Predict the 3D structure of the following.
Amino acid sequence: MAALDIDGLVKRFSAGDGEIVAVDDVDISIEDGDFLVLVGPSGCGKSTTLRCIAGLEEISEGDIRLGDTSIVGRKPMDRNIAMVFQNYALYPHMTARENMSFGLKMGTDLSKAEIDSKVEDVARMMGIEDLLEKKPRALSGGQQQRVALGRAIVRDPDVFLMDEPLSNLDAKLRTTMRTELQNLQQELGVTTVYVTHDQTEAMTMGDQIAILNDGKLQQIGTPLECYHQPVNQFVAGFIGAPSMNFFDVTLDGDSLEHDAFSYRLSPETLENVDDETTRLTLGVRPEDIEIVDEREPNSFRAIVSVTEPMGSSTHLSLAIGDRQYTATVPGDVLIAPDDQITVTFSEENTHLFDAETGRAVKNREHVRPDTEVQV
Amino acid sequence: MSTGHGSRFDLNRYDLATYLVYLLAVAFFIFPIFWVLSMSLRPEGDVLTYPVQFIPDEITLAAYEQVYGPATTWLWNSTKIAVLEAIGILLVCVPAAYAFSRFEFRGRRHVLFGILLFQMISPVVIVIPMYSVMNTLGLFDTHFGLILLYIGLQVPFSTWLLKSYFDTIPDQLDDAAAIDGCSRLQTLWHVILPSMLPGIAVVIIFNFVFSWSEFVMAFTVLQSSDLFTISVGVFAFQGQYSTSWTLIAAVSILAILPLIVMFVALQRYFIRGLTEGAVKG
């Protein structure tokens, strides 16, 4: 087990006459035993970054260090890294046992008895002892996933790399496996890099999340840091489900002017805004939109177009001006489509972004680190 | 015929029409074989009887006894050539198809297209130049020369076919093998090839059938009768002034028997390979 450091990683692919920069100057440090989630939309470079760490792609620039040693130029096998793939990549002609022992057979001098013993230990840990003599096609998706994880664990690697390992599972199994994976990672204490495009996985699984877009690292931090204090509009929009609402507004004196409403800002918030910046984007999380009485200051009218009851909460699709926005209200609030409601949001929960650069001008307060739950 | 619902034998008229069409199609292909079999079992004088007798009055194995000697040599020659050609094809085409499927390199598309172009050239067109080439290389009238020719002719089709099977194997298997410590060749041998055995079987069968039934090249390259393949052997019974149809029929039946046996034995494998390539490829 070791810390993993990625310094100035660049990966270019040639495409026709030009080239595509898939990963652009990415710096990431992962502490020994930490769980880092690389998240971003399709084509953002997260899988390429993972493949560079694994040694499946040659890097164009930069360095990757495991502990104090650079692993650039080493073959994948010599990096002591194990990888779990999206489609599990189990060898279809081999039994689960052969799949798990193949890496040890090819890459180590262990005797057959030693390999068998290791495989059986891991199979017991993963609860797949009964499946060892079965071939992948005889296993369910969840069982294949366990075998694939077992194959990674049995090699006792320094780092686990996981490339969207849960995306082929159904929703219920995905939730179960998510918890199992976290428990397993904590139990083994192996540094883990986990790639996903699912921000729920990112929020729930990682000690840290790194958000990538267009090959560039946007932000790295704890899930709550990224959620509450996004560095830019992309991160704000990507992290959180349903996504943050963005209102195009203009700063006029101490008010944000939107086509459908006017929102007065406090002097403290105004201090954060450059005098020259007038075009802003106001960001509000769906759960921060409240239904209020129409006499409430900073409130405005909205028409409910769609309701999505989730049980504990209900997502409302609201027509404000000529665009649709989302609000999340408690599940016991009964609202029907076409209802007219009055909504507002507390200023301390709002985010402001420079409309041109997308840079965060003002974020909501992060949960204070000294806040402790009294039991 | 039962008209009850749910019966296994419940046939409506559309089913009947379908079966009738199938029956006609099967008869269309089976009849020539049946006719050749019928001829091969007659005495020499009964071949051209009128009215036509599908099942001869007198059944004899005389024709088979007569062709047995040379036919076994030719069958052995055909088997040897077909097996070696199939092995040669795999040796050439597996690495080529793997490279086309897995590697990005300059001119890849053009080379693939070029290979396809070669496939479009009829072997008959190149018979004369090939005769000359074989002569120059001292490969005329040798099995080695014919095998080389067959490999050359079948490389384009086999490469494309194998590439389509390689394309169905996820790249992630290669990645997993690399992480497990395999070199490219080890990946190919331990992981990829065993995963596409139905595809390999299809390529082997196609090539086996091709070289078994190929006539023009074999007839051009081979001159000594003890080197003939079975397809050339059949022709050898056609004389300049007279032709023994019972002998031709007997040797023809001997020629197709191994293929029928192989097809029946490998039928499932063959169909699985064909449909996999068709669906996924």
Q: What stands out?
A: Residues 277-281 of chain B have pLDDT under 50 and may be disordered.
